[in-house]
Amino acid sequence: MKQQALSLEKLWQWQAEYVPSHYLLACSGGKDSIAMLSCLATEQDRLKAPLSIIYIDHGWNSSSVQWGEWVAQISRDFGFHFINEKLSFLENKRNAEAIARKARYAVFEEKLLPKGVLLTAHHQDDQAETLLLNLLRGSGIDGLTAMPERKVFGRGEHWRPWLSIRRATIEKYLQQHSLQAIEDPSNADISYRRNWLRHKVFPLLNAGFPNATDNIARSASLLGEVRAFTEQSLDAILYPIKERLSVSLLAQYSESQKKLLIRRWLSHHSLPMPSFEQLQEFLRQLSESIDGQAQIIFSGLYLFAYQGNIYFLEEVFSTKLPEVRADAIWSGIGRIKIKQAPFPLEECRWALYPPGERFRPCSKLHHKSLKEWFRLYQIPPLLRRRIPLLYWKEQLVWVGEIGNANGFEQLVIEWKKTGYADTISR
User: Fold this and answer.
1) Is 292 left (phi over 0), alpha (psi -120 to 50) or beta?
2) I want to staple 125 with a disulfide (CB 3.0 to 4.6 A). Which of 114, 167, 187, 418 is the partner?
3) Known binder of ligand: residue 267?
4) Average pLDDT over the chain, rounded to whole?
5) Annotation-wise, does 28 bind a ligand?
6) What gap in Å lies between CA 346 and CA 325, rounded to an integer?
7) Residue 286 pLDDT more than 50?
8) What is the pLDDT of residue 417?
9) Domain ranges in the chain?
10) Fold entry, domain 8-217
11) What is the pLDDT of residue 425?
């Protein structure tokens, strides 16, 4: 495959389509990101939005502070706003790369404004390495499509305009423009799997197959087309996407199709994926269960079936009761906004589900225990223990998933749940 010249033409094309509010360039000071920073500076008159440069200090190298200062100076010399963020977490050699990546992208998402664009300088060699790494891990089509050029990210998008550019092209650009870059010694540490592939495997592959990197990256692109079509087909089945998945819907499809549907449903809620074995176990339980119940735990989540529906739920939540405010975040429960209340919030308190409490919702004729109401509303037992209750003085006036108490119709509460449901207003 013929190498393309180093340019930002794809970025300019996407910019015309999307019109970003701002750009955020992830810059480690390495060759790739310094080259992109230089290209952006050279053509900054074509940028239709402000550009900020963000440096993430992982704290793994004694020189990381100096590297950040160096990137800051270059950014300011070019006239760009600079952001320096330091991560603090324990290094676990076994999965340090995954931990660092997750923490890094969490910072990027936090800093990205609505309709903003995260820019990264990933290139074709990175793409080929990612596909081969995921293949060796036994990944499915999501992993084998490697990195998309564009995707939704946080409140905006993530763009990788150089995925068709080879590493050698970037290095040639740096030489031609006499640009310096940071050489992180950890990039030579072959105890990291990606580095081992880069330094040990790919030289052999390219020696035996001169176009190996190009061809592997092309395969990722072709698989991406298959993935896009598959996702569209799955979305047509799942539409509209909800917080619960019908068991009767799954029953219409084969075992392999069920797995695809469950994974796609989870991806719509931005959740981690169960392993092949975990999902196999869940479907086994579901098929063998007399009462239609099944449950697995993975990556801090419950995936479970109850009364004909499949739910997901965060494994951990906080039992510490927050202060009653107009807008409160409750760890593991969600965000609760009290938009209108016929009484002072200072006279209120939060509580969690006590089974013996009696309650009469609006428009209902009788009081029943909360346990009875939860059964009527088909709320799974796993969810009940994290249902928030609002008391005014000593009177229960609102129950999550059910609504207001009779006589308190003016109360308006919005609950954006964490880990298992969409916003519900009562």
Assistant:
1) left
2) 167
3) no
4) 89
5) yes
6) 8
7) yes
8) 80
9) 8-217, 240-314, 327-417
10) Rossmann fold (3.40.50)
11) 33
